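PROTEIN DESIGN WORKSHEET
SECTION A - STRUCTURE
LENGTH: 213
TOKENS:
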């Protein structure tokens, strides 16, 4: 009887400890997500990136801290004017993304983010990089779609790629419109798995669709 009580107590402690760790992880993530979303300068976004890196170091089996660290570095790069520094921030983002892909190689959101990072490379030198990285981005988005056709960010990113591709190469606003309409439908049906799961892009899609009215 005593042995059963000890085993039961140990099980309860394990569950409580697991719950506490989960709660602490989500709290830390939520705090950094708020910092990332409210950050307006590279310095503020760097604080968020640092936070995600610390969480990733502590929770090495979790892919979300690595995902958001990569996303934050993409955002920092967009605020930098120096081409070399832009690439350096994207290199940091790629490092985190590579680690996340090793943990969950079939996660659709990570392949969306990979395509997004490729598009960010184009912004460093559009004329020199457009052809190469737009193709790589589209390939990543198609992979993301094959893994999860319901992921709305896939269609938002495909729309964004089409929109910014010259009309002579099959792009432009009208070419992007079907993807934007698909993205809107997907966002309407989408429910994030948790409060800290990826859940961005809908406002941008609705804003882009306004121009067609």
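SECTION B - SEQUENCE
RESIDUE ASSIGNMENT:
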């Amino acid at each position: 009887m005593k042995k059963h009580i000890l085993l039961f107590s140990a099980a309860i402690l394990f569950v409580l400890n697991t719950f506490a760790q989960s709660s602490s992880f989500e709290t830390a993530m939520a705090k950094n997500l708020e910092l990332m979303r409210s950050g307006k300068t590279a310095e503020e976004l760097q604080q968020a990136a640092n936070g995600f890196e610390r969480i990733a170091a502590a929770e090495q089996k979790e892919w979300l801290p690595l995902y958001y660290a990569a996303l934050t570095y993409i955002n920092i790069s967009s605020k930098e004017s120096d081409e070399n520094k832009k690439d350096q921030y994207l290199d940091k983002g790629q490092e985190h993304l590579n680690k996340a892909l090793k943990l969950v190689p079939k996660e659709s959101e990570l392949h969306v983010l990979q395509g997004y990072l490729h598009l960010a490379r184009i912004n460093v030198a559009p004329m020199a990089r457009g052809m190469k990285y737009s193709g790589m981005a589209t390939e990543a988005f198609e992979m993301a779609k094959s893994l999860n056709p319901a992921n709305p960010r896939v269609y938002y990113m495909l729309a964004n790629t089409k929109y910014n591709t010259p009309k002579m190469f099959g792009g432009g606003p009208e070419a992007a419109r079907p993807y934007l309409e698909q993205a809107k439908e997907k966002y309407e049906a989408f429910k994030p798995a948790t409060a800290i799961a990826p859940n961005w892009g809908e406002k941008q899609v609705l804003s882009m669709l306004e121009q067609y009215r």
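SECTION C - NOTES
The chain has two domains: 17-105, 128-213.
DSSP finds nine helices and no strands in the chain.
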